[in-house]
Fold:
Amino acid sequence: MIGSVLVAGAVLASGATAAFAQTGPTLGPYGYGDVKLGMTAKQAKATGAVVEKNGDSSGEGPCSGWDLKKFPTGKDYVGIYISKKYGVVLIAAGKGVKTPEGIRIGSTGKQLKAAYPHIKKDVHGFYDIKVPGNKKAYYSFTVEHAKVTDFNIVANNQDCFN
Structure:
């Protein structure tokens, strides 16, 4: 489940325009729309943009699973993790969502590297990079067959997953 949530994006290769990178729904540098990293479950719910997955954010575990209303993830996945201690710690990109640098699901590995020249592959196989403009978060991209298949914005401090 987490592996599917922690994944990729990509940027347009040469010829991409700044105008293109600025249009459409964007994930980063602090969150998605009104949903921001660090928000409590109560604050996130108050935006009207999220829906709880497990039906009980007061459960015993350290985190609860949510989705962006515009991007439901299905039965066995979550699109947002909210920690009782740290607030929103992960937001997954929905289809058509991009980073401010223009990376989206379907972008190529070359586009990803062009957008984030210092990106590194972590021990779990995800491509991670600090979020430009937010030193308290990183992007985690999944790349399969040279294409971004998913990506997330993740808080550096979290207690929801490894």
